[in-house]
Write a structure and sequence with these properties.
By secondary structure, the chain is an alpha+beta fold. It contains eight helices and 17 strands. Helix content is 22%, strand content 32%. The strands form four sheets. Strands 1-2-6-5-3-4 form a six-stranded antiparallel sheet. The chain has a six-stranded mixed sheet with strand order 14-15-13-12-16-17, covered by helices on one side. The protein has a three-stranded mixed sheet with strand order 7-11-10, with no helix packed on it.
Length: 293
């Protein structure tokens, strides 16, 4: 494992390299897998789950990669975890960081960046624009004219497989984030953050650009979240919640389950005027302000 190199507030390091990045076509074309996890008090959170998802996706999308047969590539992740943990501790800080691990058939590298008071704000500029609001109010909106194309082909597979993996080449999300406000990936006002929700070409809601999402269904009496088959990432936090089958909301244990969520159903709920929450490995669970009636 190479020593990391400071880069401003960022720390970048190569973990395994079979070829220079300038010769790595997948890297140049943004065709690589990645995982984003949280470092808290010098420790990696949920590393086994992230590593397992990364390896599973890699073996499916790059089954003939030379890196799989390299003696240094530990698919179990045990030795790699200890090496990575030592690299993190060498930094000598107990601050909270975001760790992004990226993997092509030829390279595995990491990048650590500081998490500001609330990770949802993402960048220093967003953090400043939100006037140091460490707990922003969350609003959700449906992107009615933006659809996941379930028939798109990449690496010979339909995009429902492609969206189930944390793949860097995600044109819908990337293009969406380049649009001007208010249709940006994530934009802030003085007291709130508005997060768009995507849908697929069948009119099924999927996820946001950065998180899984849960909706309160009054008929069910609990929260529902779209199934992976609708075209979304099986998030680590999402899986924890579904495995437990319950979420604590205002001191009450509320049931949760997977269910197809149609955009028509969402619109009938007064455009998100229902209890909702979003999850990922950096923010944990982030709720809107709506109450369960």
């Amino acid at each position: 494992m190479n020593n990391h190199k400071p880069h401003g507030p960022h720390i970048q390091f190569n973990l395994l390299s079979l070829k220079d990045f300038s010769e790595d076509e997948n890297y140049q074309l943004n065709f690589y897998l990645f995982e984003t996890m949280k470092i808290s008090k010098g420790s990696l959170l949920d590393f086994p789950s992230h590593w397992h998802r990364l390896c599973r996706s890699f073996q499916l999308l790059f089954p003939h990669s030379a890196i799989l047969f390299d003696k240094n590539f530990d698919v179990s992740g045990v030795q790699f975890f200890h090496d990575l943990q030592r690299t993190i501790l060498k930094k000598g800080t107990l601050e909270t960081y975001r760790l992004k691990l990226s993997l092509t058939p030829l390279n595995l590298w990491g990048e650590m960046t500081p998490l500001y008071p609330h990770p949802l704000l993402g960048t220093e500029s967003n953090h400043q624009n939100a006037h140091h609001n460490a707990h922003p109010q969350i609003q959700f909106c449906l992107e009615e004219n933006t659809y996941l194309d379930l028939e798109e082909i990449i690496f010979g597979m339909k995009s429902k497989v492609y969206y189930q993996h944390k793949f860097a080449h995600r044109p819908l999300y990337q293009n969406f984030s380049l649009r001007p406000v208010p249709s940006s990936d994530l934009y802030t006002t003085h007291n709130s953050v508005t997060v768009p929700i995507f849908q697929n070409s069948r009119g099924e809601l999927t996820e946001t650009a950065t998180a899984n999402i849960f909706f309160y269904d009054r008929e069910f009496g609990g929260f529902i979240t779209p199934p992976v088959e609708s075209g979304l990432l099986p998030g680590i936090e999402r899986n924890k919640i579904l495995t437990r089958g319950l979420i604590n909301w205002d001191g009450k244990e509320i049931p949760v389950k997977e269910q197809i969520v149609k955009s028509e159903w969402y619109k009938k709920q007064h455009e998100g005027k229902i209890p909702m929450f979003m999850t990922n490995s950096l923010i944990g669970i982030l709720k809107n302000n709506e109450k369960i009636q």
